[in-house]
Amino acid sequence: MNTYITVNYVLLAIVFTFLFVEGMSAMSFIYDRKSLPTVKKYLDPIWAIAGTFVVFFVVNIEVLFPSILPSIDYMYVFPLLLAALLFIGRNVFLVFSEYIWKDSKFSQIMLARVYSLITFIIIIILLSVFISIISGVGTNATLTGFSTSTFLSNPYVLGFILGTLLIAFGLSFVFYKIEKMKLLSPIATVIGLLLFVFSISRLNLNVNYITYALAAAIALVSILYYLTGKARREIVFIAAFLSIISINFLNYGKVFGTQSLTLYLNNSAVAFAGILITIIGGVLLTAMLIFFLYMYRLPDKENSSYDFKESSDEDEKIGIANLYIIPNNNKVNGKEHKTGKDRKR
CA of 343: how far to CAs of 66, 182, 322, 329, in Å? Predict the structure, then answer.
């Protein structure tokens, strides 16, 4: 195995794992508005790290595989630029939903759902680019053009994307312990897994007993949650990472259907320097990842001191950052306002 390709696969698996968790968060916002406090507790530490890993992965590709970039530019420049633009919008609406002002015309859940919609589009775009690069669907022989009609008319591509989204929806119940019609969790997960595995096999991607074992384990996690109501979020996170990295290693070095990734490898001294920077940066980002794992493993009772009640028209919640901007005794237009026991100024 080539060290550069292996490191690149690990980074790609981390990127898509974070995106998978964000996908579960986005679905939770739309499906059950009561899950907003719980979802945001885990989403807030992750969204910035996800963006950092995306940038880190892109820079790693530019250094280690520079000769593949022209082909990617020819075929995927529009969807990738669209995803980058939407990524900025996703950040904006997530921040707005966190630090919403009291008298805003837009509710926190409304902004969160706009974030969800944008996140869906980003995930679909990136899944489409990923499956096209690895399988070659939609690409021409010279790698200078991309046929959208050929890509979208392939039922197995659509099955891959739909299966992934169904798995994310099913596991969102487990990850965020959603009780609303939780029977949908094993149903969506199992159907999604069947679609996913069947589709990647029909796209001429390699699958073996590891694929089936991971699929069975993921289905079991969802079924056990439905039966017992208990779940470990770490298992979902680890299962997503292992599933993505297994696809990469089972199809090691395969790009555009038939070509080898080693053909595009940078063999200059820059590549060695790049791998050193990748390792150093990877250690720093892994430390951030460990901090995230620590944050969401904290017992719920340690966070129970925070009041996450959903805002209402009479008494909307002010974001944490605003507590430093609008304390109980503040000055507005140079005048001091004090809040008494009757909550009147």
Answer: 62, 41, 18, 12
pTM: 0.79
221, 236 contact by CB (below 8 A): yes
The residue whose two tokens read 């680890």 is: 238
In this prediction, the residues of the chain whose per-residue pLDDT falls under 70 are 44-45, 48, 97-104, 268-269, 289, 292-345
Query: Could you please report the per-residue DSSP string of 19-63?
Result: HHHHHHHHHHHHH-GGGHHHHHHHHTTTHHHHHHHHHHHHHHHHH
- CB atoms under 10 Å from CB of 61, counted, come to 17
Give the relative orientation of helices 155-176 and 3-31 as an angle to the nearest 10 degrees.
70
Q: By the 8 A CB rule, do 246 and 211 touch? A: yes
Long-range contacts of 199-202 (CB under 8 A, 24+ apart): 199/156, 199/157, 199/159, 199/160, 199/163, 200/156, 200/160, 200/247, 202/156, 202/159
- Distance between terminal CA atoms of the chain? 69
Phi/psi for 111 (5° steps) reads -65, -40
**Looking up tokens 């991309």, which residue turns up?**
146
Q: Which helix (H) or strand (E) holds 335?
A: strand 335-337
Helix (H) or strand (E) holding 115: helix 108-135
Residues 6+ apart with CB under 8 A from 166: 188, 189, 191, 192, 195
